[in-house]
Amino acid sequence: MDEIINGINRMAGSYHVQDIFQDWVQMSGISISNQLFFDQQLEDQYLTLAKKYTAAQLKEMCRWTARLVELFEDDINDYLGSIYMMLNAGNSRTGQFFTPFHVCVLMARVALAGYSGGKITANEPSVGGGANILAVAKEMKQQGYDYQSLLDVVAQDLDYKCVWMSYLQFSFAGISAICVQGNTLLNERNLTLVTPMYCLRGVSP
Question: Residue 47: is its pLDDT beyond 50?
Fold first, then answer.
């Protein structure tokens, strides 16, 4: 994670670290989503964001994405939530704080204490960066179960940044998920994304 954090801090100047982080996550997420189901509106958003950066900076962002993939190959964790907090992007000014991942793992362990390998459908109405869902997947794997075939997720948040964070992490963790932007209480769906594993399991949005 240090390489990503240091890279974002080095790039800060014209843009705040929070904006750089958000732009990188969103562009990475759009790159995945548009390979599955092309959306011109999302493509236009990608191009608008990309114009803010030089070719060298965009290449560096690609390296951050590669590092994130490598992290998920090693272990399941809330990497983006941790990076966000270590950049001091979550503070009293933004009013946004992510639950530490070890707390999420503890809650998942308690919730899955009697689990015996059946299908799990998880509906997360305020997903944040996806830590609770990632913790469930980690605990299922720890117990010897294949979360990629047993776990189905619907994750929603009002904050676009959170939706892209959870979408990117679920994609790299191989979690079958539908990620939705909108107010859960009002049943809003302004943006709906599906992860690669969702598609590999043979379901269309």
Answer: yes
pLDDT in tens, 88-119: 876 545 556 688 899 999 999 999 999 999 99
For the four alpha carbons of 147, 155, 110 and 99, in that order, the dihedral sign comes to: positive
Neighbours of 10 (CB within 10 A): 11
> Which of 31-35, 48-52, 164-168, 199-203 has the least mean pLDDT?
199-203
Kindly give the pairing relationship between strand 120-124 and strand 176-181.
unpaired
Identify which of 103, 42, 111 has the alpha carbon closest to the alpha carbon of residue 78.
Answer: 103
Rounded Cα–Cα distance for residues 69 and 41 (Å): 26
Dist CA 117 CA 122 (whole Å) = 15
What would the two tokens of residue 86 be? 């270590």
**Cβ partners under 8 Å of residue 96, min gap 6:** 89, 90, 159
Residue 39, sorted as left (phi over 0), alpha (psi -120 to 50) or beta, turns out to be beta
Among candidates 87, 85, 77, which has minimal Cα distance to 6?
87
Nearest Cα to Cα of residue 151 among 181, 123, 189: 123
pTM comes to: 0.93
Which DSSP letter does residue 117 get? S
User: Is 182:190 a contact under the CB 8 Å cutoff?
Assistant: yes
Average pLDDT, the chain: 93
- Give the three-class secondary structure for 118: coil
